[in-house]
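Q: Structure for this?
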Amino acid sequence: MSSSVSANRLRKQFGDTRALDDVSFDVAAGDLFGFIGPDGGGKTTLFRILVTLLTPDAGDARVLGLDVVRDMWALRQRVGYMPGRFSLYPDLSVEENLRFFASVFGTTPEREYEHIAPIYDQIVPFKDRRAAALSGGMKQKLALCCALVHRPDILFLDEPTTGIDAVSRRELWDLLGRLRERGMAVVVSTPYMDEANRCDRVALIQSGRVIALDAPAAIAASLGRPLLAVRAGARHAALQALRTFPHVHSAFSFGDVHHYTDERLDLTAQTLADELRRHLDAAGLSDAEVTPVTPTVEDVFIERMGSQHFQPPTANSHGRP
Amino acid sequence: MSGPSKSGPTAPAIEAVELTRRFGAFTAVDRITFEVRHGEVFGFLGANGAGKTTAIRMLTGLLTPSGGTARVAGHDVYTEGEAIKRSIGYMSQRFSLYEDLSPRENARLYGGIYDLTTTEIRERTSTLLARLGLEAVASRPVRELPLGWRQKLALSVALLHRPSIVFLDEPTSGVDPVTRRQFWELIYEAAASGTTVLVTTHYMDEAEYCDRLSIMVAGRISAIGTPAELKRQHGVSSIDDLFVRLARPA
């Protein structure tokens, strides 16, 4: 079997909101696959369909070769699912939560110990603590344990790193990398664009549509325009100056620099950099440094989002359900 | 640190000295000392469980400290909690607006809570809606707005009573990359008009947008300064690297 997940033109509508709009993709067996996009983009709806908690309005999907509608009972035994919202029982202890989720699948934490040990060992010092009293990173590790305790063949994690700190995020991704090495298919969603690089392949998802699908490096390389980083002491003034440059295609802050692309496609990065430096110098920003840089997944996401997202919503455009 | 005119115009917007909060045997905030200047965008960073939320609850007059002192907008956190609440605005990712109410109704509700007159509420609401371009959906329930627009609206509503300081707790969590940047432009605008901004975030690129920032680890402030100073001092290329180094010392 070459695909662990295969979705074909999935659609789902909630009232006036098209949560999923013709979504198709394949996840190769053994891949760590990421859905990258903001809240309200359709990630959660998609995951609920793939783990059989929701049926699509149109289209179909297979997970581990099983149809997500017809074969839902067989599939439920084989998928692990970690929902985005904290899904544990807050008044139960760490150990009680794990025991409960194991018992639902007719097993015990002891029997599965070897399987969950790499994660469980990290939370064992807190095993008598109520789940509600855990820190964000610890809660996610417990939720991951609970999602793994029945030895699923594929794991779906919906925004496991949202709202947790940068260090806990790295630790969680390290754990997912280890699961992948053991041969488990792992499908993750995240709003953090920089996490795309932890995946083998990613789909960028926005307003219910997949706007790019490839290996993260290939997506980053698909920007299609030279990208320049601009560093200046007067940051706000520099951004305004970039936006008033006659040939600007996009200009936005990116960490401690600004990223700039030009609407002219026939000029080299170096030519553009020289032109831009002169423009900034004329605008009184003589300290500005302009350097060609490699695009990131986030640059491509912004490019592909399209201009409608810069406009205010109208009475006919709706958010998520 | 001393002097008679703590609440004068030259006093910091926020001034905490040895501020401490214990819960039983656990010290959530352990003698933190820092200042936030007027009109500054101050990033208040830290790992989950490092004490940020406890510190913010003390600074917003919601929780009494166990020790130390703090003044916010010139008011003492022990004795002037109500005055603090009137001087500040607050928004977070989790709670900001009433989703069943429209933008106009939310603005009226918040304006009323802060004792604005009917005329003030009407005028400021019109300005706010025009500024954001939300007139077309001014009477629709907020839940129908895309998340990013809800968050921009929430910030504007939190500023409606023209607070001298606004506390933003993970305001951009889950917001798309374009709207996240537009949100930061609203933050800069607020700061440029004299509002002091204290903001928390887990997006490390946003940490770079702050005038100054602090990083809390295990109840203490373990680094404070401008992003450039901090990177230079610690010999790192990004705040992300600094954060990881401080939050999990090897």
